[in-house]
Amino acid sequence: MPAKSDKSKLKADEVVVKGLGVSSGIIVGKPYVLHSSNLKVIEYRLEDDHAVEDEIERFHQALQITREQLYHVIQEAKAKYGKEYSTILESHFLILEDEEMIRGTLKMVKNNHVNAESALAAVMDKFRNNFLKSNNEYLRERATDIDDVKRRILANLLGQHKTFTVDEPSVIIADTIKPSDIAGIERSKILGFVCESGSTLSHFAIVARSLNIPAVVGIANFTGFVADHDTLLVDGHTGEVIINPAPGTIERYSKKTREIQRQAAELEPVAQLPCTTKDGREIQLSANVELAEEVANALKLGAKGIGLYRTEYMLFSERELPDEETQYQEYLKIARKISPHKLTMRTFDVGGDKIPLEILTTRGYVHEDNPMLGWRAIRIALECPEFFVPQIRAMLRLSAEFQVEIMIPMVISVSEVVQAKALIDKCKNELRKEKIPFNEKIKVGIMIETPGAALSADVLAEEVDFFSIGTNDLVQYTLAADRGNPKVAQLYNCFHPAVLQLIHKTISAAQKNHIHAAMCGEMAGNPYATIFLLGLGLNEFSVLPPVLPKIKKLIRETDIKEAEALAKRILNMTDIKEIEKLVTEVTKKKLAS
Ligand code: PEP
Ligand code: MG
């Protein structure tokens, strides 16, 4: 990236920067900096007394989270560098607990009706400036400590933003984008995303693809480089972002957009045709969704069910865990839209890279060095039944009227499944006693997204009604390559022979035990994997809505015998490049026919 001081030059000439396109489409619009590595504080007014109360609560929560984080940092510093260093950090506690700072911030929020970030920044900057004016060197030095504590609290406040004031449709730019960020912005206000970090498998990238929002990741320092008055052209196919594009450039990209739309229109008629292979095997084609508003598009593009409903998305805009009735009403919206087709509801997959911090900290979550290997999904559910039980009860109630299935994420062992099923049985008993109807035969399945689960597929299959392979996590855990880290993106590859063997093992175990084998990881929507997966015997492909027609076309063009031969051949190959070459050749031929 050019240096930040180049900002003023941007108005005259267009500047092309290149990242990684993670959601296709082309848009032109003004930037909105959601949050940046510089923690930019924006002041906004709170509308009424209710909003003021909420803001005060938000400030207290941010202070509490900061306390816990600071405590952890101090313990770590003590262990790593000794007591001398940790004493400096202990003085940060005094700043954090400073009555004047807290009272001053609260007073500004109450009296001036402004958000906590701007009040805190004003109060702390005043303190800091007073220290800077001092003749005493020790006190002058303390200004840095004040800045440090301010940065910590601000980071938590900004991370907890409930709603953003994105007034105009904009290109959302940020250093990182969490699922909670997306939940806070109205869909119609998001033209595209440009994010400094992230990868194809980052959660916001998955949502962007599902909602057809162009997105580019991996442009370092972008938030510091772009000015509010700039215009951005984002090409989610190539990963190019053009700052202040010339009229000729915009025309060139419009032509490209029209061509892409023409190709999509060509595939559209496939959407309503049956999803059967050339030799007549019926394959279930479903969609992955996070929000009820995605369902209409999924149906239009040919989905015959939801194979993965990521229920945790409803948590990302909440401070507290929604109760059973609130959850039921939320689920009802989606069930009504997809009915009479099935709805596979995944229980909350929180923790890891999808932590809604506020909810978990009240239940004992503390900072984790390796959150992806930490307290997440079923681990939280089993330890905190108050997290699991209301959700299961809501799902069971829904099953009385709709075709609902329960799916449990991040399983590694049979004992977890046994415990989860015992909790589900307990919920069923309660409902029976309360005379609340539900489907006694509701299907309970698990996601296979850890090597531990894939290697235990034989025994797991005896306990559940279906498997759904979550390749997004399965690939990262098998290859020890973070799904969200662009630095290791070249290692993260679903065609790695080890991953293919685990998938093969999972589907074979399902077949042996006569249970349904689905896949809801992104590999299910990767056209180059379709024929191979058909050959292994996959029963259901659950994919992002925009790719439904392409996957169906491939299924319809394929004969099972031919797919089985290809799968057998690939399972005997050891070189990823060779595998990729082969699947590319075969797939291209089919798509051209
Ligand atoms: C997966 O891991 O493949 C999956 C579908 O779950 P998520 O992407 O939500 O982790
Ligand atoms: Mg997963």
Which key terms come to mind for this protein?
593 residues, alpha/beta, Enzyme I, Chain A, domain 2, TIM Barrel, eight-stranded parallel beta barrel, five-stranded mixed beta sheet, 23 helices, 17 strands, binds magnesium ion
Structure description:
With 593 residues, the chain is α/β, with parallel strands linked by helices. The chain has helices spanning 49-81, 83-96, 99-112, 116-133, 137-159, 179-183, 203-210, 222-225, 247-267, 295-300, 324-338, 357-361, 378-383, 385-399, 414-433, 451-455, 457-461, 471-479, 497-512, 527-536, 548-557, 560-571, 576-592; strands at 15-18, 20-23, 26-29, 31-35, 170-174, 190-195, 215-217, 232-235, 240-243, 284-289, 305-310, 342-346, 404-408, 443-448, 466-469, 516-519, 540-543. α2 packs across α5 (137-159) and α20 (527-536) crosses α21. The chain binds phosphoenolpyruvate (PEP) and magnesium ion. Phosphoenolpyruvate (PEP) binds next to β11 and α18. Residues 409, 449, 470, 472-473 line the site of magnesium ion.
